[in-house]
Write a structure and sequence with these properties.
about 160 residues; mainly beta; 1 helix; about 30% strand
Amino acid sequence: MIALEALDLSKNELTGKIPPPLLLLRNLKEIYLYNNNLSGEIPQVIEASNLTVIDLSENNLKGTIPSDVGKLDKSSLVLFSNHLLGEIPESIGQISTLTNVRLFSNNLSGTLPTDFDRYSLLERLEVSSNKITGKLPQDICYEEMVLLGTFLVVYGHYKDD
């Protein structure tokens, strides 16, 4: 499986944990494991450097979002409808190729990464139904992003200046 570029095992009845070696496959570009019964944590070490799409949504994953996801050159990070907690890693906001972030319906807390729109081509950001607090980042809709038609769904407790 060392040459594997895409893996789609979505909409099955898979159980257990995500095997850590899966996210070490250097040729892997897309991984779709959504709508299963996977549990445990997302492996903390991710070295699949060509990974552009991660979709682990609609499972029973727990723990935090690994900071390693921020060092990848991905365009889509989809982790909604799990039991993830903790803060959204700042490094995710600095991925220049990121277009799609869907983290809604988890137990994420803290504030949004301040660089979400400044360094990315973000088109879709969904973080509703979490415990996000604080202020909206200043650059969440700076001029260039408004021209791209950014889709933003954020429900939480925000304070205005």
